[in-house]
Fold each of these.
Amino acid sequence: MLPFPILTFCLMMMWMLLNGFTLGHLILGSLVGFAAGWALASLRPEKPRLKKWYLLPKLAAIVVVDIFRSNFSVARLIVMGKKRPNSSGFILLPVQTENPFALAVLAVILTSTPGSAWLEYDSRNKTVLLHVLDLIDRDEWVAMIKNRYEVLLLEIFE
Amino acid sequence: MSAIILLTAVSLAQLIFALAMVIASVRMLRGPRAQDRIIALDTLYINAMLLLVTFGIGTGRTVYFEAALVIGMLGFVATVAMAKFLMRGEVIE
Amino acid sequence: MMLPISDFPLWAAIAVAIFLLLGAILTLIGTIGFLRLPSFYERLHAPTLGTSWGVGGTMVASIIFFTVGTERFIIHEILIGIFVTVTTPITFMLLARAALHRDRAEGDQQVPHKIEVSGTRDPN
Amino acid sequence: MIQWSHHLIIAPILVPLLASALLLFLDERQRVAKAMISVISTLFLVLIAFILLKIESGPNDFGGVYLLGNWAAPFGIVLVLDGLSALMLFLAALLGIAALVFSLARWHAKGAHFHSMFQLLLAGLNGAFLTGDLFNLFVFFEVMLAASYGLMLHGSGPLRVKAGMHYIAVNLVAALFFLIGVSLIYGTAGTLNMADLAARLPQIEPDRLMLLQAGAGVLGVAFLIKAGMWPLCFWLPTAYSAASAPVAGIFAILSKLGIYVILRLTMLLFGDGPLDGFGANALLLGGMVTLIYGIIGVLASQALGRLAGYSVLVSSGTLLMVLGINDGVVSSGALLYLVSSTFTISAFFMLIELVERGQDAGANVLAVTMEAYGEGDEEGIDEAEGVTMPGTMAILGLCFAACGILLAGLPPLSGFIAKFAMLTAMLGAGAIGVPPTAAIWTLIVLVILSGVASLIAMTRVGIRTFWGSLEGTVPRVLVIELTPVMFLLALTLLLTVWAGPAMQYMDTTIRTLGNPASYIEAVQKAYRVPGYQSAPTQVGDP
Amino acid sequence: MELILSLAIGVMTGCGVWLILRPRTYQVIVGLSLLSYAVNLFIFGVGGVKSNMPPILAGDVLPATLADPVPQALVLTAIVIGFATTALFLVVLLASRGLTGNDHVDGREEQR
Amino acid sequence: MTLGPYILVLIVLLPFIGSLASAFILNTTSRDLPVAVAATVTACCLALCILAYPNVVDGNVLRFEAEWLPQFGLNFTLRMDGFAWIFSTLITAIGLLVVLYARYYMSEDDPIPRFFSFLLAFMGAMLGIVVSGNVILLSVFWELTSIFSFLLISYWHQNAAARDGARMALTITGIGGFCLLVGMLLLGNITGTYDLDKILASGDMIREHPLYLPTLIFILLGALTKSAQFPFHFWLPNAMAAPTPVSAFLHSATMVKAGVFLLVRLWPALSGTYEWFFLLGLAGMLTLLLGAYFAIFQQDLKGLLAYSTISHLGLITTLLSLGSPLATVAAIFHMLNHATFKASLFMAAGIIDHETGTRDMRRLSGLLRYLPITATLAMVASAAMAGVPLLNGFLSKEMFFAEAVETHADSWLDRILPYVATLAGAFSVTYSLRFIHTVFFGPKPEGLPKSEPHEPPHWMRFPIEFLVIVCLIVGIVPSISIAPFLATAVMSVLGAKTPEYSLAIWHGFNIPLLMSAIALIGGVLIYVAIRRYLATCEDGPPFIRRLRGQRIFERVLVAVSWRWARWAESRIGTRNLQPQLRWIVFIGFLAGLLPLWFAGFEARPFVFTGVDPAFAILWVLGAGMSLAAAYLAKYHRLAALVMLGGVGLVVCITFVWLSAPDLAITQLLVEVVTTVLILLGLRWLPKRNALLVDQMTIRARARRFRDLVLAVSCGIGMSFIAFAVMTMPVPDAIANYFLENAYSEGGGRNVVNVILVDFRGFDTMGEIAVLGVVALTVYALLRRFRPAADSFAVPEQQRIQARFDEEQPERAPGDTVRDYLLVPSVIMQWMFPVIITFAVYLFMRGHDMPGGGFSAGLTMSIAFLLQYLAGGTRWAEDRIRILPLRWMGVGLLTAMATGMGAWLLGYPFLTSHFRYLDLPLVGKVPAATALLFDLGVFMLVVGSTVLILVALAHQSIRINRLRAMEAAKAEER
């Protein structure tokens, strides 16, 4: 009946954000969201199982803060120009999860955060190749990512 | 006072975005590889979107919002296709 | 329906200006970095300044501006923020991987190797 | 309420459009059903066009002005039915049915969506003939062109694709010119409606008028490309000869569309007033050169297809020159010539395919293409087997001779009558005592030369084709392939026999065209259907 | 503004014309695209250049001050048709390349 | 007699009907049926002619008139006077004889129906010329005779000589016909009518008109070509490849007479001037002399007769040129006489040919013993040809000599005429003698293709007998046989000017008799002198044997109509695209700027409206990128595409900046779709190698420079015009109406959208039709698509990656791509519903705010496209079955149905209706039919765009399949 309730709700919200919060648009938005949900169902995507969805805001908050911080650090690096030490490098990050949603969220986080870039995921070795602009200590980076994001992600999705 | 602040900020921001676009386009012209150009195009898209939002603030109208939204939501399709072309030599397999 | 800009409360004007300029300047720095950083993988990081804070700052400015200006809660700009955040990584990921492939295929020593078969092709 | 018959004006556009929409629901395999729909629609078109023609030859000058969307003239789009448009509609419908029937023998199965494209081509043509609005004209030009691209490429094969690419490239550039011209006219006159434009011309200040002229010039180039004026015409022989036979058959009217528009606009806008005679010299000169080029091309062609292609140029050149002379009586003769040469060329293109089918070279090319480019997913093209009818060769020869006679302007078919009508208006009994000017002398010489050239070329090619190779097998030809050709040729015969009434019609048409005021008035006075329930007048948030 | 716009139109026209006169099909298609940008802007500009006056009616604006909507409607149609024809030309050039084996507009390798 | 006019119609129409009838006799086994038809028809016509005689005596005229093209004075006017009568009788009578003769002449293998069909049609045309009462109608029949004579001459088209002869005849007489037409038109211009009677009545006016000379020249060109007069004579001998009945009919009695007939016909209107005399006399005399001279040296029997015909026609022309009534009488008389003896001679020659199998006089001799009767007949006829007394030829020749010695105009031409006449007479005696002597006398022929010649069947000989008897009767008793008819004919031509003349054999000893004697004796002497030479010489006259009109004509024709034409075509035309586009652009440039130049353009004073710096920077960028795109398009395709995307983006910002949000949205969406499309296409284009830049020749450099100049000038011109038009506000445009009424009458606040779906909805309808048909074309074309060899293989990247997967033991094939897309495809899938929602949003708000069916449709198709990108074609099509054609069909139907819905309410097509609906819970909702229309647009756009994209995307799969198939095939081998 309602294949993706959360999605439908989000789409309804999106509809109302775009059109205004009225009763009419609530109905219309629900209809559209419902239809769009069915459209997605036809694609037969894997259904995400959100175990601890309430942890999502926490993750979001962490990410916002991180983005804020890294923005400035990268900006500083750029402004420094040639004077900065050439410290960029690649990291091979082992990941535990195989859940594509968790990976997707991780990818979005890492890519949105200036200073780190997701290059390649290897499903056999379960590793991600990252490129980091300000690489001082590889292990520290790996640990940081594991502790700050992956743990949370594992909790949310597994 | 607020008018001056707002107007200055908006025109300054517009100028900056335009400038940023120019810089991105320099990279686009210079390359050296296709990937640089594509990233530059993506950057151009983002900057253009920001420019449009700023323009919306400057005019006080919301009618330009959709244009920005279209860039934000669908602008990536072109660059994604290009990226896939680079990787696979074929856009849709 | 829209407040004339001269009637804006000062705090709102200043807030809008600050967010706007902050976003703009970070975006500019990002593109400058994009121009000046030496290697592709480093350059990859620079534009994310624009997609993160640049977008964020501008969004916030716009939300404040329109919410104050129309005396209604207008936050649909947030959608732009969400979509940009969600979609930009796709391009970057795909492109970075493609660049990696091309560099490896060309036998570039700078990139970490998972020895792929060599051969050259530049569809450029 | 308006009378139901009034809606007939728009029917020539809607019927094929509807047919093409219905055709989209049918699978490629339901070929018979597709053909049925297409034929019925085209037959309908013939009927409608005939009724419209009848209305036009009645006492009224204007069959009607149709206000689309019930918007008054300069604002909405109007369709205007007058003698000229009715004539062109009828012409298009007749060619349409002939080419369509011809295609049913085999060509329609040689690619996907032939019928849809064909119907859309007709819709585009009819729209272009009917519309009274410049931008709408552009749109229908594009409909027609887009469909023609598809039809041009129908059947694929290297030659066709290459020629098609040139055709498309040239027409894309022409479309850009069209847009530039229309927008310049809008920018300077502030209207898109042709009648309104004509009415506004006198009030336009001189510096604006200059730009308007520039716009008209650029616009003219777009039409001249379509009409095939030298040096804008090099694509034409190649494209027409590369197109498949039924397609070339209907293409015969495409170049006439260019002529039609030039005729309509020059008569309407440059008849009198501030732009009197604008561009007439260019037309005259261009037509002259085109005619010369056409003559040279006709002589130089080895292949029949190119010969036919150059014949198109000859007829375009002649018509352009006559338009350049810009004389009422001559123009009415030219109209007759237009009709006659369109029939001729259409029949000729279709005939060529039948004739060349017997020749080994042509057959080989076709076979190679079929083998190399036919695909696995091509549901078996059943080579419609023609029966070698007794006397096939004789009938083909007869038709060929008829085409030759028509092209050369020899009696007894309408080619002669048409040429005579033009020439007599220039220096014969139609123009007593008017001493021929240098331009008229040139035109006469060129017209005669073109006849001679066609005669020489046609006999040369005809002898080689029919008598030269005895070992050439008799082509397999179906009756439904021969019938359209003979139908068109019979039409030219009818045109000869009924030259008087036909000429009368042309005369009236040209006279109406020569008096733009009546056209303008008809468009401006066209009334909206009252009783329209309007929305709230207050603008505000809902 | 008019100055910038007209210069821009000029530059794009020039580039487009240069490209459509080149022998490679791809150059032609890029040229046609540039030309259609230029022409679209041209049509658009014909209605006069007005900033921040979109032809969208609201209660408090005088209709006459708004930008001319007609050229906009025309451009919209032109964009659509341009899109369609670009797609078509692209496919035709592919087909032509497939059949002739090269991407010269005249189907031959020219010795320049 | 009221029946009279219809006789005329019947005379002309019957042969054509008979022709059709015999054409439809497809059963060729019966030889007699077509003959019967032909004979009946001809006999009927003859009978009708005889019946008509009472109507034309004493200068009466029989007329029939029907309107044909009255506006231009072209009517179907038939008119028979005495002259026409005598000619019609001649035509039908000889026609009847020829039909009879042909019955026996034609062989079993020949397609008889065709022959008689053409012959009858020709006869009809010829009769038409004779009885036309309208000069244009006369031209019509004139050309018809050319056409049918072409078909008759080429009857044995297997024979190359027949084809060439026919073609030459048609070319020359056809051109002559065109000239004649012009001449007739000029006559019309002078007199204001095409009616023959009126023209004949206004002779003085014509002769004094400034256009007289051109008219005369054109008409003479027509007449002289038809009558094979010098210098157009050479087609006639070549036409001898025709079957002999045709020669007898066309080339002696009828068609070649058409020219002189016309001269007689127009004699009252045109003759009597010095120009007339000089032009016609010169041509006539030259023809007379040269024809006779050439005839002597022919080895072909029919060739001899043909040149003699030419000569005799020259004689008639000369007579007509003199302008004296008496000469005209002689001319008419000689026309009749010539017809009788020459037709019989041709038929005799045909019999000889038929019986011996050759016409070469070097091989023929002594036939008298085999063909006594035929020989006798032929001898009498040739004697008539030579002008021997007691035969009809003598009478008219005597009249000619008599006229020749008279002075008509003071000119050297007139003075030499007697000598020319005598010499020609002598020549004619020579060739007549030669004909008889060589063929019938002398030793037995040897080595004939047919060994034992014998007399033909009696009825084959009958026509000759009949004609020879006529020759004799006329020759001996002219006054009681031919005189009354001749008088009628002469009367009708000359009217009041009819002179006194007598048709007696004996006029006493006078100069003409002396001339005759000299000619006779001289002729015999000449023959004796050159007999031996003639017996062995080559074909053609000595000294100028190489100089043959035919050869010259053919050389010239080939040079002009083939070599020069081809050369010129290649010079002034092209089959290549580049020069074409160059021309087009150049002409467009001129067309745009010349009007301004001519009008002396002066710009309005320049008003600097201020420049927004950001906007300026933007366009510096845009210009830079378009230049870069132009620069990179050759070798760096992808880079050029990226640049193009950049330019598109700048254009889009410009739209926003300048108050066109709708355009901006559409432009962006189109940009995205186009980019993907071109990328899809790039897969099938080979890579270009910048390193292979080859040497540029100077010409190539010059060409590039020219292109550069053209491009720069176009750019400048466009800037200039754009600036000029932009700085002029649009004058009281229709725009204001739209702005004012969009809401009140269209029910929408987004005026652009209201224009698109309501005010100018019809444009949109056309536009979606364009999109639809393009999609269909793309689909149709790609169904047959086959990539070039160099892009047939799997792309290199994929090969490398596949090899990598293969080499690593722990990896499965396709892992690389799976990993590559794993994360992105999740996001792309989840964007699907979001984009759909957005599309619905764009669609719903279109009428009031930027958006609309088109942009919504594009958005929707991008949603689909994204799924293809994310999962590949197979994956996507397993999950979503889009039927693009259905979408398109439904869309088009919806749009049309909306439009037609208005009909039900009595409004024109596309009239929109608008009202607010009060829905429960929701409140007032605007509902316009325009929205329904927009829905149609939306669906069609989705369908078309998806169809195009999918058709392109499918190529990868198809190629894989093809590759597999080809691999399998290779293995089989």
Amino acid sequence: ANGSGRRLTDDEFERYSRQMIVPGMGKEGQLRLINSRVLIIGAGGLGCPAAQYIAGAGVGTIGIIDGDVVEASNLHRQVGHSTSRIGMKKVDSLIAHLKALNPLPTYVPYPFRLTPQNAADIISKYDLILDCTDNPVTRYLISDVCVLVCKPLVTAAAIQKSGQLTVLNCPPTPQGLVDGKYAPCYRCCFRKPPPPSSMVSCGEAGIMGPVVGMMGVAQAGEAIKILASALHIPAEAGGGDSSNTERNLQQPTLLIYTYDLESAVGPYTFRALKMGGRKRNCFACGENSTLTLEGIKAGTPDYVQFCSAPAPAVSL
Amino acid sequence: ANGSGRRLTDDEFERYSRQMIVPGMGKEGQLRLINSRVLIIGAGGLGCPAAQYIAGAGVGTIGIIDGDVVEASNLHRQVGHSTSRIGMKKVDSLIAHLKALNPLPTYVPYPFRLTPQNAADIISKYDLILDCTDNPVTRYLISDVCVLVCKPLVTAAAIQKSGQLTVLNCPPTPQGLVDGKYAPCYRCCFRKPPPPSSMVSCGEAGIMGPVVGMMGVAQAGEAIKILASALHIPAEAGGGDSSNTERNLQQPTLLIYTYDLESAVGPYTFRALKMGGRKRNCFACGENSTLTLEGIKAGTPDYVQFCSAPAPAVSL
Amino acid sequence: MSGAAESATIPITVDFSGGLEMLFDNQRRHTVALPTVDPSGKPATVAFLIDYLCKNLMRDPRAELFVLDNHIRPGILVLINDADWELEGEEAYEIQPNDNILFVSTLHGG
Amino acid sequence: MSGAAESATIPITVDFSGGLEMLFDNQRRHTVALPTVDPSGKPATVAFLIDYLCKNLMRDPRAELFVLDNHIRPGILVLINDADWELEGEEAYEIQPNDNILFVSTLHGG
Ligand SMILES: [Zn+2]
Ligand SMILES: [Zn+2]
């Protein structure tokens, strides 16, 4: 994916000139973006702003998967949709917006839910995955498949006045490789889901638009830098280098955004938390993992059951 | 601006429900937004994402001022425009996008530049100002007028891989009042512009889309919290309280975003810097200030000259 | 309270984020003077801190949103001075003066 | 160099942001062992640090992008431990061990 053998067109030169002259991007970085394939899972509050900047930057192929349709109550934060497209599949609505912004990329719509049955086929077609979903069942599924098909994952979440973001499995390392220092997967960082009773969706708990917007734009930012600088190519295979520690990949940062309605931006608005590396005993990427693509397709693990462990009947 | 005497319509209830249920927002916060007037100065890389979330949240009146037209090289970051609207005034292009997102607010287009002659008339019609411009001449003008007509200002800037944001003059305090603790203006924090030779525009130096996008969304976030929680109403006049220190307003935070193309988000990506309060000797808001609206209109100070102090003929 | 040694304490800050602040007076940062030793006389660990917070700082009856079976509930990250507690020894980590302990519930909305 | 006392030094970190890092080896953070006293024997201040950085750390000939007339150039903020140096005494502030000094050029693009 280094773009050799392809030149930029005049259209591309004009459209991308302002980011190509940024030190560190250049024609090389732009060609890497053009030759890259990004999958955005979820076309909601995270996926809309993320997709705008991914498309604007000129990523060559952009897949978007979501089974929902646009509702009026989405529009305060899902800025890639519109009032006239209420009732339309979110995937089609968002792609209509993105095509108007930048007609050059290839857009691939998947107007249905990601499932254990279709996940590997879809995810394996892309170079980098953005987790813009809204539920732990899908989050664990995405991460497991990313481990098995070796894809870097930029994951984010937001609810009410809090947002979180982290870069996982980057560069991707085969399952079971735990010697040395490798980047963790979602399960390494978040071993178990919260009990369902302690969870609420954005529909039930609410969400401030700029909170989820910040996280979505930040996801696009991380994706663009990974692809433009080839941070997802392991050092051995060329393109990266061994100073992974300085790149915040082996022990990635969990970014926390706390939006306080009663005070302006301040010292605690953003916190950068240091996560551990890949875990030897991780269910998905660890050395004795029994996780396989065939198993996932056949229903093992059972993601729904995993995320509905019994818990007290109260809600946070 | 507390919305008394006005009820939410069914349309509004449906559209804004997900943010109204966020603790601290409620119907009261939503009505304050609906009764508020926000002016966005600049419809570019900052103004586009800021406007999307300001409009989505339901701010009642949204003015947008910009004299430029849409160009292809804008579209990697100016996500409120589109390819088919290249050549159109940015103000009209952005408002077309915002109306499609949310038809309920009143949009007021100002398809020309902000000048010392028109600034006070326009700015005085709004409750809060977003500085989304791209040059110091306009930045100093905006701040000076905000001091004189008592408006809070959310200012941001971005270039290449760096972004900055701060909330100024909030709550607004009359010129010359420097006893006690009052919020600073732009000149209190940034006394002098850099020499022109050390400055470059986004056109010359380049800009990564997500960098300016993050700052624009963050501006919307700050504006929404100020208006929804009435942080811009001084304690004496009710609506605020005296714990201004905890609100990061008297000594505001300058947020710095550093986007490193070669490493993932990390401990130094965001920094929160503590600025001083209002300065006794500030040219604009200090106790012996001679700045007046009449003077500004008549050409004093000369903003262009102020921002072109002689300097070495090299560029950063 | 209830017989905790009143003698020496360790000054620390405890932060709650991601919604957990609702269980603790809606306050994101608490300054805590933690007893230097636990009731059995051993140095104060994170495990003791969690128990101490439930008994002394929690203003919400729903303790099960913070602890389950005497351990921090799944879906809550514990950060010791901004690093995942797994890098520091988890529950067994001995609290040091001026430590910052952050409890943050992981989010899933989007 | 040039006769600076080689004896005692103060360990500090110096950060550059907003484009200034380009003048300093494209590196955002530098660990600096600053002489405890300036050439005239007075305790090291921020003014001395600025001079020291120009002479010892700058890898770019365009010093005028960092200093003008022996002072930091307009449009650069100086932050001492994350606070505007105007809160700390500006150039006269005496550097303390482990201080973090950040130089950031103010931005105007948008
Ligand atoms: Zn793992
Ligand atoms: Zn001032």
